[in-house]
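Changelog excerpt

This revision adds worked examples to the README so contributors can see how folded entries look when concatenated. The first example is reproduced verbatim below.
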Amino acid sequence: MTGTGPDRSAPPKPGRTVDLPSLKRGEIRDPALSAALRKLELTVRRKLDGVLHGDHLGLIPGPGSEPGESRMYQPGDDVRRMDWSVTARTTQPHVRQMIADRELETWLVVDVSSSLDFGTTGCEKRDLAVAAAAAITFLNSGGGNRIGAVISNGETMKRVPALSGRLHEQELLRAIATTPQAPLGVRGDLAGAIDALRRPERRRGMAVIISDFLGPIDWMRPLRAIAGRHEVLGIEIIDPRDVELPDVGDVVLQDTESGVTREFTIDEKLRDDFARASAAHRAEVARTLRRCDAPLLTLRTDRDWIADVVRFVADRRRGAMAGGR
């Protein structure tokens, strides 16, 4: 549920590395949006340059997606890579080595339902979703890599074809930033947006799901189908009010996705119940993504999102290197 939006005239909170531009729909002129996207690109490239070395070492370091030669099985190898035909011929267990494509195709599934048009700190969650999409886009650009997107607000679904080039990257981010807010009472359709990646069938690559993951977890089946063919990353966008309620007493709140408006008296018991329910839901989201072999990156509107991306990449790199050893 959401209350009133953030005061954009207030000074930015201390400790934020990046002051995200406001991308509120209907209030932005094209030159202002272009300038905001250029600033975002410079910020991402400057802050994250050097975090990822090489054209094909992405946010989720892995063995690649195309089959290569077989070798003898060694303790610690992924049993899902077993090469059963060679194992049967040689009577010795073998695994199939994987090689990385020279060109990577990345697809973004961006949930811009009404629950993301909300924020209580320096930006709205939708602004942070655009920033997350920009980070993925710019870090995976170059070398002929292609990137596309499926953008859903619950009422409409927009598909941006996977292409390469700086102009295409800017147009993709523009499409995300300018997607209109869904009418009051329209719920998001994350499951439908994820399922849209299956038609038509695409070459193996990377799928990035950007959402606040609020609402029912009805997207596990389509995500599992996608994870069977693509490398998957989940990016969770949250605001402090998604996980805890302030001690403000009587307040009127509206759920923009259902249109329901209710009056609450926020006391200690309600705050505790809300915090427990929120923690339980987020834990279930994380478990569902883990079942689909998808790591989860959490970005918050009240935190330095650039630092969170850097920390996530560093942790994944350490894990990959430890697994290799």
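The second example, added in the same revision:
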Amino acid sequence: MSLFSSSRWLVGVSAMLALPAAMANERVQVVTSFSILADMVENVGGEHVEVSSLVGPDGDAHVYSPSPGDARALAGADLVVFNGLLFEGWMERLIDSSDYSGRLVTATDGIAPRAFAAHSHEDHGHEANEHEHEHEHEHEHEHHDHDDHDHHGHGEEAHAHDDHSGHDHGDDDPHAWQDLQQAKVYVNNIRDGLIEADSANEQSYQANAERYLAELDAADAEIRELLSEIPASASVITGHDSFGYFSSAYGVNFLSPVGLSTEADPSGASMAALVDVIEQENVQALFHENMTNQAIITQLAEETGLPIAGTLYADALASEGDASTYLGMMRHNAQVLHDALAEAGHEDHGHDDHGHDHDDHGHSH
């Protein structure tokens, strides 16, 4: 081999060895707060992003405690995406401790949040904290403003998590991704954040978002058709109250024994009252959630004789299987509900008309 050829070969090898690092550096480093957002970012970002989720599949974002490694991950990120509406009580502290100053995407920006109906603080001991939370909410507004994005009020939920007294999301329901039409707002916000962080690939993000939005519309239509076969009078028991948007959008009535909390155990009196509600509300089946205390639902099944019809996914994707993507999770939940509650030959008896009335049932906090 000549000296010229040898030198050219060495240059070629050096370039090949450097290529993966260069490609990695060119990819937008995105950190999301939990797994559902991570999947959305991957769909919009495609090959141009590298995504990590602070709370992984089957993880509980309600009770998550950030680590020093999470602060380092944020410090090295190009973009941070989180839900907002007080869902991640720990996010504000993490952003502060990481000294992150980059682009923040609040995925729920632009959503008119659904209010929790019959928001009864007496039932879960939150009334005493209500005014304290309002004061803390105002304090957060005064001290935190990243890129004019409103991720306000995280201190409210943080207070609840720190003393493990419950998970007070305030009066607004943060689980907006449970309605596929609301999820389109998430996708648009993610698209815009990626474009701002990486304008060179704007066309790719626009095209990916357009494709993904069409997939959300298709899944929404499938779910509406599938769930139209469930009688409007049927009610569902789940571990915690995170299906309000799903209920309003798709006409399935959800009841939960412990409100929003994914930690608390209901008292004996509460369980007895819930058994009475089950008997009154035409509850036909109980459902586990992938991240809540399954013993509560198991106990209800034993006391009522109702079957446990499957597992629903609310705040986290599955580690594997059909619920390991956001759209897969939504389709999985719809199929499990249909299989347990649908009547053969049942036609749609105005589910959309009844869906918003369901807020009056079982959402007492």
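Reviewer comment on example two: The radius of gyration is 23 Å. The longest strand covers residues 28-34.
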